[in-house]
Amino acid sequence: MAIIDTHSHLFFASFDDDRDQVISAAQAQGVEQIWMAGVARESWQTQASLAANDSRLRNAYGLHPYFIEQHQQSDVDALAQWLADHDAIAVGEIGLDATCAHFDKQRSLFIEQLKLAKKLQLPVILHHRKTLDEMIPLLKQYGPEQGGIIHAFSGSAQQLQHYTALNYLIGVGGVITYSRAQKTRAAIANASLDCLLLETDSPDMPIAGYQGQRNEPKRIKQVLDALVELRPEAAAEVEQQLFQTSHQFLLRAKARNQ
Ligand SMILES: [Zn+2]
């Protein structure tokens, strides 16, 4: 059995000293692939170089709202050109974050990147923070048919259903390892198993018991264990379905990459 970490930032400098060991340690835990979500124009080349040398890595490229201050209008044009020249599993990580500044600029860059994904027939990988409801009408109006992944889902069962109805998969990460996350845990416990994916968001979002430490793809095993505890299905069935759903997600970008 194998696991796919569907969301990481393994290209961050915090992995520069031991990236190969980090990937090997994840593989020893059954991790077959690690997907990397882009954050800013300056990171795309690093991501591409890493994946070119390691078939276990896959890339999405985008402009993340955390870095809104540094993004320029010209970066969206550069993203369009970059995606024309490089393989990508999705446009991402993109979205809206109510705790970050420049919300109007976030919104306009988000809309432009949704339009780009639609034009290129690529799914999107979405970041949200206190913006789950706000993003829905934008996805309906501008989002790609290929849907995407709502990364690090944290919300109610009703919000989860709004996303799955729009062809979005639910990224299940470290949040479910915290017992205080009752609403999210209940939503994921009751969701359809085939709309769930596993992720770490390494080096961010440490799981319970590892606060203050760098998160790593190998910890996805603990996320899986926490998910299995929440779900009615047997562990093997959960693992099998998540692996299959991850592979099926890659096909959403396939029409365009061929
Ligand atoms: Zn991320």
From TrEMBL:
Stated name of the protein: TatD family deoxyribonuclease
InterPro entries membership: DNase_TatD-rel_CS, Metal_Hydrolase, TatD-like
Entry GO CC: cytosol
Positions annotated to bind a divalent metal cation 2: H127, H151
Stated family: Belongs to the metallo-dependent hydrolases superfamily. TatD-type hydrolase family.
PANTHER family for this protein: D-AMINOACYL-TRNA DEACYLASE, HYDROLASE
GO molecular function, one term: hydrolase activity, acting on ester bonds
Positions contributing to a divalent metal cation 1 binding: H7, H9, E93, D201
Pfam families cross-referenced by the UniProt entry: TatD_DNase
Keyword vocabulary terms for this entry: Hydrolase, Metal-binding
Natural source organism: Idiomarina tyrosinivorans
